[in-house]
Every structure is written in C-alpha cells, then in structure tokens.
Amino acid sequence: MVEVGEDVTRFKVGDRVVPIYTQGWHDGMPTLELRTKRTLGAPLSGVLQEFVAVPAEDAVSVPAHLGDSEAATLPIAALTAWSTLSEGGIKTGDTVLVQGTGGVSLFALQFAKLVGARVIILSSSDEKLSRAKQLGADVGINYRTTPDWEGPVREATGGRGVDIIVETAGSTLHKSLASLAFGGFVGVVGFVAGYKAEIPIRALIGPMVRVQGIAVGSRARFEAMNRAIGQHGLRPVIDSTFPLERGADAFRHLQSGQHFGKIVVSIP
What is the mean pLDDT of residues 180-209? Predict the structure, then answer.
C-alpha cells in the first residue's frame, strides 16, 4: 500500500493488502446490488494495472508468510474454495470431490486436507493427477478415460458417496448428484464445461442433498481464511508467472487448459 486517505485507520502506508472481489460485501449474505454492480473486473475496473484504489473497508491484510504473487491468488480462487467447503459444513473424516486442477480446485484440495478430510480429484491428465496426489489427494480419476466417473467415485467411498463436491464444470452436475452421499452438498462455482445441466429431480429429493451457487465470499470469510492460511503456513500453487507486458500470453495460457494451479501476472 503506497497511500491512504486521511481518515483511514484500518491500514497504513507499507501494509500489504488485497481487495475483496465484491466491494462492500463485509459479512453474511450480499445484496443483489452488491452482486451485480460491485464486483471487480466487471462491472468495476479490474486489477490488471499498476495502481488500484479501493475503500479501506474493502481490502484485507495478507498472510505474512506469502509473497506478493502468492497473495494475489487469494481474493477469488482461494476464497471461492474456502466458501464452498464452509457452506458444505466440512469436518474431519468427510470426503470431498474436486473437479480439475485449476486454482479453485487445488485450493479446495489444500483446505480440505487441513481439516483432515479425504479428497478425490478429477482431471483429464494423469500427470496432473500425480501432482495432485503429491499435494495430498487420496484418489485421482481421469475423466477423459473414465467419462462415467460417478461410478468410480462411489466405489472409492465404499458405495456411500462423497460429502461435498466442488462443482467447477457446470454441465456435469447430474454426475455430481449421482456421486453424493445422503445429505451431501454440491457447491456450484463455475461452468467451464458448459452452462446447462439436465438433472433428475429424484436425485435431489430422495437423498436430501443441497445444491448451492457459490459467489466467492465476504470480507469476514476472507479474513477467517487468511488466519487459517497463516496458522498452517499454506502456500498457493502457482503454475506460472507472466510480466505485465505479456498479460495477453497469460490469458492464452489459461485458455489452453495446460495450467496446474494459478497463473500470475507480475507488475513492476
């Protein structure tokens, strides 16, 4: 932080902070106006610039052990993963299914292992599955070679099903529902595989499951997450770093789907 307003008391010059994604969402549920008009990147200006100004109450301090690039990964991907697990009521002994090896999924893997949960991860790459197991994943399933992965997921849980699913694909929601344990939870955070999903209503009613949309999280939840990250010394998984002048290349790399973890754009 290089400058603060004269009435700012939350921070001082030199503090390391990051903005919250939904400006003005401090705790509890956001309002419709906050969700539609106060999110960074759209419709508000994004952060791919040298200087960003936000209200002091719409920023949080970063965990002291993280570098700037690591801290930059937290506001959306990390908090989305944290919120999903929190809404699912994660506890020791639960089984969590995460889809893919992007930023949200790997953060969900790391956070789930912090509380002693078992993690099943999906990927189209055996090499990425191997890397995910090095981070603590208990079971890896290649969804390209095993397109009907809901069967193997249930087998990996002894037929019981998983307790929490971090649904990043969107169009695979019907398979996620088939993978859930009784009373399980699906946090829908994305739609990288498509916007539409056809689901059997009985899969919702019979096992009494919950499906909820996740829209990152509040400042209070962000601060709680950062305390956990600091306490456990957790470090984000960074795939690669691009200088600002190669920002377009960073987006192309993201589009390629070859990344494992977060892609960072560094600013001098």
Answer: 94
